[in-house]
Design brief:
This protein has two domains: 172 residues, Jelly Rolls (Sandwich); 86 residues, no CATH class. Helices cover 22% and strands 25% of the residues. It is built from six helices and 15 strands. Helix 3 crosses helix 5 and helix 4 crosses helix 6.
Length: 310
C-alpha cells in the first residue's frame, strides 16, 4: 500500500502561487525585437501591422502588384476620411519593430510606397516609448502624389536631424533604446503620430531596418575603413554580410554595393563630413586581386560619369 501526503490548504495555495510566479518568469516575452537588416515583405501575412482593434478597415495583404509586379504581395491600408476609427491614414506595429534600435545599430527605416487612391499624402514615421508615452515623428514628410499607383522608395533617418519630439519627457536616445511602437502615416502639416483624416489608399512593402548604406563598420560614417572592408570581399557571390560590404542584402559584394558606398562616401548619419576622400581610399585599399580592382575602377568611372551627367 502507498500513502500520499496531504498538504494543508494554505500550503497548497502557497505552492500554487510560487509555481505561477515561476511560470511567469520562465515564459518567453511575447513582444518581438528589432534586428538590423530585418525586412517585412508580407509574403507570409500582415507581419504584425494593424490600426488598432477598433478600426473597421484594418490593413490587408494584397496578393499582387507590389514593387516586383505580379505575385508580389504588399500591405494595403485604406482610410475612410471620416472622423471615427479607420478615418486616418496610419498603421502601426508593436511586434518585431520594437526593442533597442541603438544596440542593433538601426538608424534608418526604408520602404517602398505607392498611392492607390485619389488624395496626395505626406509620409512620415513615428516611434513611441510605451513606458512614458513619449513619441517622436519625422521632422520632414516625403510627398506621395496621386500617380496611378507607381512605387517609390523612401528612407527616414532616426536621428536628431530626422526626428522631432511630439509628446513626452524622454530624449530621443531613450526612446530609441526602448521602442514600443513604430508607425507609418500620412501627416501633412506637422510632425505627429495621429495621421491625416483623409480618404486614401496606401501601399507599403519591403520595410527594412537600416543604417547609412556603406557604413560597414557601424561607426556612423562612410569612409576609407568601410571601403577597405568592401574591397577585401569584392566578388563574393554568396553568404556575404553587411560588415563585408553587402549593402543591398543580396548575399553578394559587387558593383551595386560599391555604388551605394560611393554615393554616401564621407557622409554621416544626420550630416555630411568632408568630401573628396574616395580617391584616397581607393589608393590605400589592401590589394583585392586584379579582377576586383578592375571592376571597382570601372564602377568608379561609371559613378563619376553619372554625376557629371546629373
Amino acid at each position: 500500500m502507498r500513502f500520499r501526503r496531504v498538504l494543508p490548504s494554505g500550503q497548497k495555495r502557497l505552492l500554487a502561487a510560487a509555481a505561477f510566479a515561476a511560470a511567469l518568469v520562465a515564459a518567453p516575452v511575447a513582444r518581438g525585437a528589432i534586428v538590423f537588416g530585418q525586412v517585412d515583405t508580407f509574403n507570409g501575412g500582415l507581419a504584425g501591422w494593424d490600426e488598432g482593434a477598433s478600426s473597421p478597415n484594418p490593413p490587408t495583404v494584397a496578393a499582387n502588384g507590389g514593387p516586383a509586379g505580379a505575385g508580389d504581395p504588399f500591405l494595403q491600408n485604406a482610410s475612410s476620411g471620416t472622423g471615427g476609427p479607420g478615418g486616418r491614414m496610419v498603421e502601426l506595429n508593436q511586434d518585431q519593430w520594437t526593442g533597442n534600435y541603438i544596440a542593433q545599430h538601426v538608424t534608418r527605416i526604408a520602404f517602398d510606397v505607392a498611392n492607390f487612391g485619389q488624395a496626395p499624402m505626406a509620409i512620415r514615421v513615428s516611434l513611441e516609448r510605451l513606458a512614458t508615452g513619449t513619441r517622436y515623428a519625422s521632422t520632414s514628410a516625403l510627398p506621395l502624389a496621386v500617380d496611378g499607383g507607381l512605387w517609390h522608395h523612401m528612407t527616414f533617418e532616426l536621428t536628431p536631424s530626422g526626428l522631432s519630439s511630439v509628446v513626452g519627457p524622454d530624449s530621443l536616445a531613450t526612446v530609441l533604446g526602448d521602442v514600443g511602437e513604430l508607425r507609418i502615416l500620412s501627416a501633412t502639416s506637422a510632425p505627429n503620430y495621429i495621421g491625416d483624416t483623409v480618404a486614401a489608399v496606401l501601399g507599403v512593402d519591403n520595410i527594412r531596418a537600416l543604417r547609412l548604406q556603406g557604413d560597414a563598420d557601424f561607426d556612423g560614417t562612410v569612409g576609407p575603413s568601410d571601403f577597405n572592408l568592401l574591397a577585401s570581399n569584392f566578388g563574393k557571390v554568396s553568404g556575404a554580410t553587411w560588415s563585408q560590404g553587402d549593402f543591398n542584402f543580396d548575399g553578394k559584394v559587387g558593383p551595386e554595393d560599391f555604388n551605394l558606398l560611393a554615393s554616401n562616401f564621407a557622409k554621416t548619419d544626420g550630416g555630411i563630413g568632408p568630401a573628396g576622400q574616395l580617391t584616397a581610399a581607393i589608393s590605400t585599399v589592401p590589394e583585392p586581386g586584379t579582377v576586383s580592382t578592375m571592376v571597382i575602377a570601372g564602377a568608379v568611372v561609371a559613378l563619376w560619369r553619372r554625376r557629371r551627367v546629373g
